[in-house]
Write a structure and sequence with these properties.
This protein has one helix at residues 12-17; strands at residues 2-3, 6-7, 36-48, 54-66, 70-83, 86-101, 106-117, 122-138, 142-157, 164-179, 183-194, 201-212, 219-230, 240-252. The protein is mostly beta strands. Strands 3-4-5-6-7-8-9-10-11-12-13-14 form a twelve-stranded antiparallel β-barrel. A two-stranded antiparallel sheet has the order 1-2. It is globular.
């Protein structure tokens, strides 16, 4: 700015706030970035014929809202497998997860999940949990989050077994890593144990790698492995379920 005494310099913020002396100062704040929903749909099919005839279907959907201080997620999954005209897997899961940031590294969360498993003869498994989280690492490339909280689980069965309800602790670890522009690695482990029965616990694990098929990352291929361990499984069923999957994933906003 040129004055009678010579050039004068001022900060950009001061220039933006300048105005007529006889009028109130009006400061226009820049618009906040929009909070957007993102959506995901995934599907896989596996078939085999010959000595063993088998088919497998895995369908999933997820919607997620990311804000400046909080994330909200809803998801559902259906898995069905049949071998030699015998159903060996039939699981339907749906749930929601909300996380609120307290600061850069600390957060609190609340989640709920409903599950039906025909093979394990679980007509309904309802889970509710809440607690706190801590990020050991949080940047645009990698995140490492720890969770610990209280969990309430209630189970109803299709066989001659009374409904089971348990209050306990849960511990979780989640790690995500954006590997350059060609992949996204994710690992998730959750351990839950009942207060009144140390023999009643569950361990859930899933590791996956997303590989974009197009530059926009609208279409991806997901390779993964998951485990579910139930210490008190139904009679005639295994405690540990292991699943390998290859999914075609569609992402959009």
């Amino acid at each position: 700015m040129q004055t009678a005494e010579g050039p004068s310099f001022a900060a950009v913020a001061d220039l933006l706030a300048a105005g007529p002396a006889d009028q109130p100062l009006v400061i226009v704040e820049p618009p906040k970035p929009p909070r957007r929903w993102s959506y995901e749909a995934s599907a896989s099919y596996r078939g085999k014929s010959g000595n063993t005839n088998s088919t497998g279907v895995n369908l999933g959907a997820k919607t997620e809202w990311k804000g400046k201080r909080g994330d909200l997620k809803f998801y559902t999954t259906w898995v069905s497998t049949e071998e030699n005209d015998r159903q060996t897997e039939d699981v339907l899961i749906g749930g929601g997860d909300f996380e609120r940031q307290l600061d850069t590294y600390y957060s609190w969360y609340a989640r709920t999940e409903l599950e039906r498993d025909t093979i394990e003869q679980v007509s309904l498994r309802a889970t509710m949990a809440a607690g706190f989280g801590y990020y050991l690492m949080k940047n645009p490339v990698r995140e490492l989050r720890l969770r610990s909280g209280l969990q309430y689980r209630r189970e109803s069965f299709d066989y001659d077994q009374e409904d089971n309800s348990a209050l306990g602790l849960e511990f979780g670890v989640r790690h995500t890593w954006k590997i350059s522009t060609w992949g996204m690695l994710a690992n998730d482990v959750t351990y839950t144990a009942a207060f009144d029965n140390r023999a009643d616990y569950r361990v859930l694990h899933e590791s996956s790698l997303d590989i974009p098929l197009v530059k926009s990352q609208l279409w991806k291929v997901r390779l993964g492995l998951s485990h579910e361990y139930n210490s008190l499984s139904a009679p005639g069923t295994e405690d540990l379920d292991t699943t390998y999957f290859l999914k075609l994933v569609l992402n959009w906003r």
